[in-house]
Amino acid sequence: MSNENLVGWMTATQQYVENALEAALPDEQRAPQQLHQAMRYSTLQGGKRVRPLLAFAAGELVAADAANLGRVACAVEMIHAYSLVHDDMPCMDDDVLRRGKPTCHVAYDEATALLVGDALQTLAFELIATPLPGVDAAQQLAMVKLLAQASGHAGMAGGQAIDLASVGRNLNQTELEFMHLMKTGALIRAAVLLGAMCGQPLSAEQSDSLDHFAKRMGLAFQVVDDVLDVEADTATLGKTAGKDEANDKPTYVSLMGLQQAKQFARELYNDALAALAPFGDRAARLKQLADYIVARSF
Amino acid sequence: MSNENLVGWMTATQQYVENALEAALPDEQRAPQQLHQAMRYSTLQGGKRVRPLLAFAAGELVAADAANLGRVACAVEMIHAYSLVHDDMPCMDDDVLRRGKPTCHVAYDEATALLVGDALQTLAFELIATPLPGVDAAQQLAMVKLLAQASGHAGMAGGQAIDLASVGRNLNQTELEFMHLMKTGALIRAAVLLGAMCGQPLSAEQSDSLDHFAKRMGLAFQVVDDVLDVEADTATLGKTAGKDEANDKPTYVSLMGLQQAKQFARELYNDALAALAPFGDRAARLKQLADYIVARSF
Description:
Two copies of one chain form a homodimer. By secondary structure, chain A is mostly helical.
């Protein structure tokens, strides 16, 4: 598949997800209006939708239904959106810019931002617990649990806590990897696995391979993020650039230097791609997308 | 059943739930230690466990398994605990005392309190999505969805948003009821219904009756809470008394006066009890508990 083909697929998928989010979010005409408006503000029209794209690309491995993928993608994206709203709050990263717009607590107020994050998390679980046509109920229950494990104290929220505790400290590579596998990697991994759980069941070998791919890509994504935080400007990122260094946060760049961090991302990417071998041509989209995600940093 | 009998049952059930929470919460020796410690601090050894008690009492309608009830009770109680942690934060009610102890953001810090609430919510969904022995997977998926709907923008979180927006405003009784049905009622109702979903399926008539009971009790609970906020002292409540009036929040007492509010609670209670008729003797515990909850205010 050509790169042009990838861009067309990404645009169409992003639009599909945007429409699905639009439909899944509460109507801002209904009470409580400000909460609903702020939930929409914080979720719609923003971001590259990397997690939804990964879910859809993984869905191609198993010929999954688009509507089901849309629902799963919305759930994962709402977890991501909630984490950004809370992460930007004054007591956390205290950031004013996100996806090129004022952050939620700036556009509204802190209490609203707190409730927006809370309610987006709940809505994610409501969406993923609503029966997906053609998906076995026991399988879907496992999907709910996977999303919860990826998001909670042993996943994303736990990673945030380690991140907070690590400000101003020197972490070694093992500690940094542990933090990032939880903070960013767990939800990236969940997006991939949940997409693949929307279709025909995988064999045990295929599941293991996909899991390996998903874990490596989750880490690669974070390494690339660290590289971009140094190299890109605020306008390109749509969020404040250089803030890791300003906040004295350990990153792959601060740990190993820029060139080495790029090299590490490349190694993770190669390792991830190798794990897709058992899927043959059906993994073409996932390979393209992985290439796109990592190539951002080169 | 005698009242002595009720007290013994309550004490035993509270202890059972305490042990279940203890086992379900993350180990504070594991990283991130402070997050885990603060999650335990905010959940264990506190509160009357009204929602777990309601779930267990409703479980007696359907001869539900105690271990399953324990899991459901933990999930509901973690949602409740998360809401208290976030509600006490400076950007919300800014309270320093909860269950007789410093609130989470006072004992730790605001960032930790934010993450504690987030991670407790996630853990609630992880628990309720873990297969319950003997419960059909489709039924359990419906339980996850029920908990999400009760907690989110159309339930507890939405009620909080309306509460915030109503400070200093005069609400009429319809508006106040709408707020409280969401803020407190939805989760009380969920506790009752989820307990009954752990056992033999109810008939449509029984489900409707139980739902009516649960909704009336949810509202009665809030009216009683408003009464106690005026009548009880801080030591008895274990939280700051008189804070509704201090915060200029509309309550049933401010709307209808103390005696009328008590009378309204009594009417709701009578209406709730009448709805238990189809269950006969199996509803004895639920009746006793309803009596105990409302009688707190007389």
